[in-house]
Design a protein that fits this description.
By secondary structure, the protein is α+β, with helices and mostly antiparallel strands. It has 10 helices and 16 strands. It has 2 domains: 84 residues, Rieske [2Fe-2S] iron-sulphur domain (Rieske Iron-sulfur Protein, 3-layer Sandwich); 233 residues, Naphthalene 1,2-dioxygenase Alpha Subunit, Chain A, domain 1 (Alpha-Beta Complex), CATH 3.90.380. It has a 7-stranded antiparallel beta sheet. The longest helix is centred in the C-terminal third of the chain and has 25 residues. It is globular, with a radius of gyration of 22 Å. The relative contact order is 0.17.
Amino acid sequence: MSKSLDDLYEDYRPGWSLPGPFYADPEVFEAEVEQIFRPMWQFAGHACEIPEPGDYFTFDASGDSIIVIRTDDGDLKALFNTCRHRGSAICREARGHAKRLVCPYHNWTYDKDGALIAARAMPEEVDKSMLGLHRANLRMVAGLIFVCTVGTTPDFGPVAAAFGALLDPHDLGGAKIAHSMTYQLPANWKLIVENHRECYHCPSAHKEYARIHYDTRLSSDTWKPEISARTEACRVKWSAMGLDTGNVNPTSSFTGAWWRANRTAFPSGHVTESPDGQPVAPLMGQFTDTDMGTARAGTYPNFWLHATSDHATTMRLIPMGPDSTLMRADWLVRDDAVEGVDYDVDKVIAFTDRVNREDRELILGQADGVRSSRYGPGPLVMDDEQRVKHFLDWYMGKMTSPASLTDRPSAIARSS
């Protein structure tokens, strides 16, 4: 890299896209791991994936493999997947069930809460109570599991309150995953977040999406009266049904520095995210009416969700390198819905899968473009890309704030 990281930060111009090295340079990516991902709450998965004691799944938290397991008392724990003996990974499968966590190397055995309970031939003077698996921080709200791997975590209280009020009526904790899909994108993770945070591209790139959502019409004076009237009518209806209406917001703006929670109305005649806007699965949670709009929740740096009356879709980004990202999509329906009887998987995933594939092509084109010697930051269109600016301002603040540094030396420290 020809410039230092500090010089790159100085090149950032609020209201413009990022300089090219932010999308491709390994040193920038290394700094992001230390200053963005590890210090933040990362979405890990769903509580409904591990309903019984001993059920677990593993996930990659920016280079740290984490086991999320349900204990005998029904609690959830997040444990570093690293044996305290000589460091072997304990769980090699993505998910499973275990009465005990047993290291496959030398059979050191841990309880579901991470306590070391057996270590063959270990000297008596070694204190087993000091050799339990390291724990990560875990918070669960509305059936969504978030993990942070460092000691000092961002305040999760406002997120828990907002997400609970918005999503509890959908009962995601009592749902099931109808389908999962992982998209491989040879692109920087920020390009994916930026794409998600604007609909400037939607009228031309997502015609199906544009037909059943107001996002593409917000800046149009022609549509503003209808959007306002429809939003207010839904607000009154939803309030009478007991839903939280504090964040009924057609603009989907962020309600916190790094999180959002809001509900938006569909245009009349559409009630869910399907190609024709009509239900594709039984009503979820407490709903008795299909016209509940779309609940939208998200957290920087790796998560967003859309939930309607009949199904929900969550997205989790897993950065693998400066130009490689996995995007995991999960579609949820109510737990007692029967596949092939109550819902068809192809119909449940059709809308969002199409949008994801359309976005993938756009993102890959941008990933190629920002590598060009002629790429330079361009100005954002504030009416349509204000939320991109929100993300980039937050990102740059985290990347330059000393308070965001972890205890481990960062790439910034090494570059100075």
